[in-house]
Amino acid sequence: MTPKKLNILLLFDVPWTPKPDQDFSEELKTDDWKTEAHILEALKKLGHDVRYIPVHNDISPIIETIKNNKPDIVFNLVEEFNHKSFQERNIPSLLELLGIPYTGTGPVGMMLCKNKALTKQIMSHRRIKNARFAVFPPDKKITKPHDLSYPIIIKPVTDDASYGISQASFVEKDEDFTDRIRFIHENRKQWALAEEYIEGRELYVSILGNRRLKILPVREMKFRAVPKDEPRIATFKAKWDNEYRKRWGINEEFADPLPNGSLKKIETLAKRTYRALRIKGYGRLDMRLTPEGDAVVMEANPNPFLATDEDFAESAQKAGLSYETLIQRLLMLGLQKE
Fold this sequence. Notes:
Number of helices: 11
CATH architecture of the largest domain: 2-Layer Sandwich
Distance between the termini: 24 Å
Helix content: 25-40%
CATH class of the largest domain: Alpha Beta
Shape: globular
Number of domains: 3
Largest sheet: 6 strands, antiparallel
Structural class: alpha+beta
């Protein structure tokens, strides 16, 4: 059945202040803008009317455009505002004030997921298995809690996409522990999160839905050339540096067969986490599967990349959803959010 034609406003963030009516057609041809380009193309193939607004540090173009030509729904791809990822939540807040439906998670879910410390506090309260942790604000004495055991990973609290995470984030002694927390304070200008390193397989679990949830086929980050005695962590380079990934045999693909009963554990845990963190429409959970077969939630991403060759779309394709079908489903979930 042909979907109803919708008037759609596509929002995405840009790293500079765009000029009025700036044409982004050249940028949309590059790999850095593939998510925006793929979604724009899919929306047009579906027969919808689509306009887009690049967002940096000014919301007035959004308000003015909506006032003059109210869209049926906004396809929201904004991941930061004025270079601040924690401001991502304010775009859905604005759309709610304006009474405009939008795709993806709302401001509450964004707030819960984009602060890793808050995410872990909520999960711990709901008895969702995650790594033991401690939080360190700047200008406070740095002392490792006695119940936190080495090895430990040190992360920024509010950065995403593995910013601030490197092999140096893996620490095994007090001196390195203190130095890395200070590095986060001084270089990332934010609180630091210390969590126990969980040995195991790095799994990515994509979820689709609002009330009724569909777990898509699980993806896995492989570390084929990393020595067995070295930590296997999703650092910034492991995710985004192609030469580094080739050197260490790092790649995302569909998960190898899981131990008996593990998939059911993963799916149950994923649904509980998704609901506890108020994720809507779509999201992705980063998990570890321990050698003992226990599933542990590491992080929640309420706004995962949606390019055709990224984990979420790949999982949807394997589940039988074409890319256009997936994009249409996200629109319908946005319209049904209430």
